[in-house]
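Hi V.,

Quick status before I head out on leave. The structure for the redesign project is tokenized and pasted below; the design run finished overnight.
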């Protein structure tokens, strides 16, 4: 134990020395410019009430707090089947299979479909959960440059056998979108199977928040679409959408689905309620879009004043401000927090060295006044840091 504690201590010390030590903090009292609650459903009393009503209606049929087992043992209920049918219908997909989280869905899906001798071609910016799925899959993996169609095609043309392509539809670290339609065409040319993670697009993008796979009508060209419920949907969990035979395969072979207790009724009811509410959230989506344009303008004006600031201007809720090196970006984030804003520094090695950033998430419930105050605070703090 002593030797192991020493080893752990060395790892932690290295983190501190590199200025990227992590600790848990509560920032709930600050203005939210960091959560994934893009359209405010997590804080919505309407969602809470609707979910509670559904729960009260269902609980007498179940009389259990927890699911008591995995879906294949004792955790399955007809409500799962009903909700999965509704989810599939909403996204115009053949089937849906609910998972306990997006992380678990990605790890389970990728490690289950990609086998030894297969090749996985992935965008260099995909989420850690997809990386972990790849590690567990035993397939060979190769990255392509972020959103670079030429590089994607180059990588696919180098391979033979079954190939998979992993992308996000809206990227969590750069806030930009994948050219999904073009990617689907390239995948079809090489008979490669595309998996799209829509964690940051569901609820925000496409008709009624159905996501970008729906928006481009490419459901049939994707092997699977992963939607997660912990972000704009304001609750928790995920689903893998795709053909019915994929669902049957996952139920039989996907270890993170098979060997984990099913989601409890409360969570299931909240997912159903969130889907019920999504179509009526159009005014929130419009408000969010207007706020993004407002932020774009203010930020461009400010960044013209500071050559060291790089702003990745985009039309999505995730806005990126690059100010290189871990120490300085941490300083800037902590000063902005001191001024009352919940913003987070994203450090290297999570992002490449020199691309350390503040990731700002805009929400339908933020106001123009909050943005104005934030820009003033950023200006004040940048003046001090660059003196
Ligand atoms: C792109 C992406 N995929 C998957 C996940 C994991 O989803 P969950 O938080 O439901 O585990 C996240 C969450 O951070 C994400 O950003």
């Amino acid at each position: 134990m002593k030797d192991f504690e020493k080893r752990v201590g060395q790892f932690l010390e290295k983190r501190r020395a590199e200025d990227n030590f992590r600790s848990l903090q509560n920032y709930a009292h600050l203005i939210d410019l960091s959560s994934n609650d893009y359209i405010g459903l997590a804080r919505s009393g309407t969602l809470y009430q609707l979910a509670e009503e559904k729960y009260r209606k269902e609980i007498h049929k179940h009389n259990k707090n927890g699911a008591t087992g995995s879906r294949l043992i004792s955790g399955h209920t007809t409500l799962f089947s009903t909700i999965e049918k509704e989810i599939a219908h909403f996204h115009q997909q053949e089937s849906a299979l609910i998972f306990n989280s997006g992380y678990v869905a990605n790890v389970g899906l990728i490690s289950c479909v990609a086998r030894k001798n297969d090749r996985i071609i992935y965008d260099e910016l995909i989420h850690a959960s997809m990386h972990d799925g790849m590690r567990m899959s035993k397939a060979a993996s190769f990255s392509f440059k972020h959103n670079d169609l030429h590089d994607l095609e180059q990588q696919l043309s180098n391979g033979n056998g079954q190939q998979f392509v992993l992308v996000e539809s809206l990227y969590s670290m750069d806030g930009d979108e994948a050219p999904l339609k073009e990617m689907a065409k390239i995948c079809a040319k090489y008979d490669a199977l595309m998996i799209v993670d829509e964690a940051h697009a569901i609820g925000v993008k496409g008709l009624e928040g159905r996501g970008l796979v729906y928006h481009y009508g490419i459901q049939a060209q994707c092997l699977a679409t992963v939607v997660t419920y912990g972000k704009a949907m304001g609750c928790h969990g995920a689903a893998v959408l795709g053909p019915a035979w994929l669902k049957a395969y996952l139920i039989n072979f996907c270890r993170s689905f098979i060997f984990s207790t099913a989601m409890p009724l409360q969570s299931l009811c909240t997912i159903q309620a969130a889907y019920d509410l999504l179509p009526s959230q159009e005014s929130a989506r419009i408000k969010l879009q207007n706020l993004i344009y407002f932020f774009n303008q203010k930020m461009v004006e400010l960044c013209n004043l500071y050559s060291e600031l790089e702003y990745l201007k985009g039309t999505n809720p995730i806005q990126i401000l690059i100010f290189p090196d871990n120490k300085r970006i941490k300083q800037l984030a902590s000063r902005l927090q001191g001024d009352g804003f919940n913003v987070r520094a994203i450090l290297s090695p999570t992002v490449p060295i020199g691309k350390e950033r503040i990731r700002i998430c805009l929400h339908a419930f933020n106001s123009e006044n909050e943005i104005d105050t934030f820009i003033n605070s950023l200006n004040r703090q940048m003046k001090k840091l660059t003196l």
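Above is the designed sequence. Residues 101-103, 106, 127, 129, 168, 172, 197, 199-200, 228, 230, 238 surround pyridoxal-5'-phosphate (CB under 6 Å).

G. will cover questions while I'm gone.

Best,
W.
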